[in-house]
Amino acid sequence: SLSDLQPLGLDPILSIAARVARDPRPERVDFGIGVYRDAEGHSPIFAAVKAAEARIARDQRTKAYLSPLGDTRFVAAMSAAAFGEHLAFAGLQTVGGTGALHLAMHVLAATGSGRKVVLGTPTWPNHAPIAASAGLGIRTYAHRADVGGAFDPAPLLQAIATCSAGDVFVLHGCCHNPTGIDPNLAQWQDIAAAIAAAGALPLIDLAYQGFGEGWAEDQAVVALFHDAVPELLVAYSCDKNFGLYRDRVGMLTVKGRDATSGQMIVQHLAAAARTAYSMPPDHGAVVVRTILEDAELSRLWRSELDAMRARLASLRQAFAMALEARGLGQPCLSRGFGMFGMLDVAPGDVEQLTERFAIFLPPSGRINLAALTDATIERLADALLAVRAG
Ligand code: PMP
């Protein structure tokens, strides 16, 4: 019966937010939760989003049902903006990047027997549960930096060399969560060639386009794989780069062996959506489409996103220098991209940071760099030094 259910452990990141809220110390800082913050600690709504919402409130004439594909104009506009007009993709709107991954894994589980999902660990903590919920087996390899702080491709290449044809490689397209360590373009080329040779299937998870090296640079891996492999899935989230988190906006784009098979895959994805939730929520997708279809709103949105990227990159460099100055330099922090990085902490260090300094982060040591400010950079670096000293 339902009373047989056992209590579940709390999600480490969400439980930190609850602890921070209960903590009375005014200097407390939450480095856990993965949303962008400005210098005042707010997660602002983009001005471009506010303007688009005003327009939608004024002009929208109906909220009649669409279809399990969602807003197809959103998918067309978003894929063109993300990947360029020249890349042929079929696709559908999804409930965030999570929904895209969920639909992809469920349709993959229904095709090809014994497929496994291959994950580089650490990874976003929802990847393995989504694969497991689809009934797919999981293999892992170490996603890590070499001593110089650059991505070490050896474990991934080894996993590809030992996979079975049809295995699914979930690859973070940019701004790896949680390490911030991405392959460079030459490494991506080797990875794509190896995946093509093995007959494996890449599923690119692109949740942070625009937060890494730049808008075009952050999707270069999609273009590269599109050329290299016959079949490709891209799970795309607009929740970070439009700041729409709770509105749940994403898409799943598909390259099939030919245009007909691409459309066929999308039909099956739409059927999976139909049984799960019938149709994705509309609002966020209309916001994104309204921005992308308007040159002025597009410029405004891109300038806001570019400012976020620049701020993240400068916080990352300032924090890396503060660590360096205390003899705690971590090359993979200074060389990383995006919102996250991993602090090199021993077990127990994190609890000390919290107890002694009101600094909150998950036990893994992942920090959200957007939660740093000029003042907390020094505080966090000092606290790390103090904890090291014991
Ligand atoms: N993939 C990765 C790597 C992520 O970090 C996230 C969000 N934290 C997602 C997918 C899911 O994004 P969404 O909120 O759009 O479902």
Automatic annotation (TrEMBL):
Transmembrane segments: none
Pfam families: Aminotran_1_2
Keyword Transferase listed: yes
Domain Aminotransferase class I/classII large: 29-384
InterPro entries reported in the protein's UniProt record: Aminotransferase_I/II_large, Asp_trans, PyrdxlP-dep_Trfase, PyrdxlP-dep_Trfase_major, PyrdxlP-dep_Trfase_small
Cofactor(s) annotated in UniProt: pyridoxal 5'-phosphate
Coiled-coil regions, chain positions: none
Keyword annotations: Aminotransferase, Pyridoxal phosphate, Transferase
Family according to the record: Belongs to the class-I pyridoxal-phosphate-dependent aminotransferase family.
Description of how the protein assembles with itself and partners: Homodimer.
Protein's UniProt name: Aromatic amino acid transaminase
High-level lineage: Bacteria, Pseudomonadati, Pseudomonadota, Alphaproteobacteria, Sphingomonadales
